[in-house]
Design brief:
The protein contains 2 helices and 26 strands. By secondary structure, the protein is mainly beta. The longest helix has 6 residues. Helices cover 3% and strands 52% of the residues. The termini are far apart. The structure holds beta-D-glucopyranose and calcium ion. Beta-D-glucopyranose binds next to strand 10 and strand 20.
Length: 302
């Protein structure tokens, strides 16, 4: 395995939500607290960004054009070219300090995304005030889980019969039976549990993706590591170490979907650490030779 830097210090706050776009051969990602959406074109090397003006937690392309972004408590259509933003809806109006966190689309183009409470410091949010939602193709929001602390990464098995979902606190990844035609989830169970594991090595489970063999690639905050894990046994199959502690998410990309792109955060890294110990915090990394491949990412069809 070899880790390289794609964009040094691309994010000044919390890099997140990497999405490989097949059409433009680009990596899209966000810098949450900065409120920026980024595009890095792998063919030209161009790096472009749009400042949305509010915390922006994920970006996924929309079949009809443009993107859907999570922005504060809003889901918003963003037109990259005109920079126009149009609100689809606002969630949790009674909890104005909450915000959306990670989001992704399922194989038929529904959007799944969750919220979290305001953090006093990384991974210390107002407890149990978040939710996990599904936005259907008619742009109607459905609550799939409540009492969420930090809603985080998600991914599906290749057969779309299982949804994996990171609930960052209590440091667990859940699996659900997933019914693709209806979007129903059921039979919640824990497949990865870090509650008894040392924080400095395992950290907080965050964003994730899965490969064509249904193994999970889990980026972990405070851990410096991405783990490849077998969700059937909970066994760690491979560990990738990075020169920064706060890894936030990962996705497959590149011409053959065999490169892993990883985002990172500077939040919780002191100015002194940033200068001396982890000057690459906030960078985008790429990992080659991982002996795994992913599938192209899905987009919102509403
Ligand atoms: C959130 C951060 C949080 C981190 C660790 C990220 O997905 O956006 O706010 O601190 O996870 O749990
Ligand atoms: Ca995340």
């Amino acid at each position: 395995m070899s880790v390289s830097v794609v964009l040094k210090n691309a994010c000044t706050t919390c890099g997140e939500g990497p999405h490989w776009d097949e059409t433009t051969k680009s990596l899209f990602f966000v810098d949450i607290i900065a409120g920026d959406c980024h595009q890095w074109n792998s063919q030209t090397g161009d790096h472009d960004k749009i400042h949305t003006g509010n915390p922006t937690s994920f970006i996924v392309p929309r079949e009809k054009g443009g993107f859907v972004i999570g922005q504060g408590l809003k889901l918003v259509h963003l037109d990259w070219h005109t920079k126009t933003q149009k609100t689809i809806l606002t969630a949790e109006k009674d909890k104005p300090t909450n915000r959306f966190n990670d989001g992704k689309c399922d194989a038929v183009g529904r959007l799944w995304a969750g919220t979290m409470g305001k953090e006093k410091q990384p991974a210390v949010p107002d407890p149990e005030v978040g939710h996990f939602y599904m936005l259907d193709k008619e742009q109607k929001l459905h609550t799939m889980k409540d009492k969420v602390n930090i809603s985080n990464g998600l991914t599906w098995t290749v057969d779309n019969r299982t949804l994996f979902y990171t609930h960052s606190l209590p440091r667990k990844v859940f699996a659900y039976d997933f019914d693709l035609p209806s979007g129903n989830i059921s039979n919640e169970r824990v497949v990865i549990d870090f509650t008894e594991k040392p924080m400095d090595k395992f950290g907080i489970p965050d964003g994730m993706t899965s490969d064509l063999n249904d193994k999970i690639w889990l980026a972990c905050y405070f851990s410096s590591r991405v783990f490849q894990i077998d969700p059937e046994t909970g066994k760690i199959l491979q560990t990738i170490k990075f020169p920064v502690t706060n890894l936030t998410s990962c996705c497959f990309g590149g011409p053959n979907y065999d490169e892993l792109y990883v985002t990172s955060s500077t939040i919780g890294v002191t100015a002194d650490e940033l200068k001396h110990n982890q000057p690459l915090a906030g960078s985008i990394f790429k990992v080659n030779n991982i002996n795994a491949k992913g599938a192209p990412a899905t987009v919102y069809q509403g």
